Amino acid sequence: MKGVVNSKKRKEVHSVLRRTTPYVILLILPLLVAGCRLGYVLQAANGQYEILSESVPLEEGLQSTSLTPDERRRLRLVPQIKKFGEEDLGLNETENYQAVYLKSDNPPIYTISASPKDRLTRVTWWFPIVGKMPYLGFFDLEKAKAEKEKLLKQDLDVIIGRAEAYSTLGWFKDPVTLNLIKGTELELVETIIHEMTHTTLYVKGQGEFNEGLALLIGKMGALSFFEKNYGHDHPFTLEARKSIQDERIFSPFLKSVLERLEQLYDSSLTYSDTLKEREKIFAGSLKDFRHLEKKLQTGRFIPFGSRKLNNAYLMAIALYHRHFSLFEAVYRENGSDVRKTIIFLQGLSDNQDDLLVQMQKWLEERGARTS
After folding, report:
1. pLDDT tens, residue by residue, 284-330
2. What is the C-alpha separation between 81 and 86, in angstroms, rounded?
3. What is residue 162's DSSP assignment?
4. 367 Rama sector, left if φ>0, alpha if ψ -120 to 50, beta otherwise
5. Greatest CA span in the chain, whole angstroms?
């Protein structure tokens, strides 16, 4: 997104496309009891405290002379987005987004993701309440880089990503951050609805379900928001449609890349030969993407073709984008209605089994197809 990292830091941080992360700050005591590292807990607590203590009510933020007219207009839009999410989409009412953090336009969280070099799996970290998490979150870039170095010594693929926003799932009153106000209207609406989805339905230990659902609801909710408030032909509405269409193009492409890698990693090749062969797949995938990007109508996925691939990067992207067609098929089977879709998935989540598997089985039983 625009203006979220200064020029020096921008060179040091890999952008995992344009995404949001539900980084959850838990209470220090439960984390310590669970055996988590004190340093990690303290940096999380300190970072969260700084954001909360330095945030001001939206009304006060609107008076800030540091905001441009465009930024002030987007900030005024926040209560309207929140109300739409609650009343029109059926998302949970919370006390989030009633304040704004204007002290820095850097992204609030840097994320660390890691994967083995010869398997498409994620290194995970376990926390109370939320279960396994496929990343660690840091408010300080240097601490994130130090963690990256530790993981690299374990012969893992590792990336540092940027989280443009995060949700504490109701533990704290999440503010709007300045980097969102500096972005576009579409990014702002998608992000707020995305994070509101996490506070409405979040299943312990099922990261791909949580992020895939929030991505879908963020995009479909944003389109509905713009259609209702600006009309079907407004530039904001058209951009929202293009964003969804690009997702429909990129998600199957990503899935095909992952399937080719899975076939390789399931083979009997030695570790050394596997790493050589995966580089050929990476190179071919980037070549394929250069043809694909001609069909894309927005710039959201352009970062994919501008950097070296590894398993951690692909799995971080897959967390959000791999199962879009599955979620959209479930959405269509529920009348393309956000409220009905969430209620259906809430019922499906009662037994805590793998929800992606349950969703696919439900679609097959109905004779529905994923695009």
Report:
1. 999 999 999 999 999 999 989 888 899 999 999 999 999 999 999 99
2. 9
3. E
4. left
5. 64
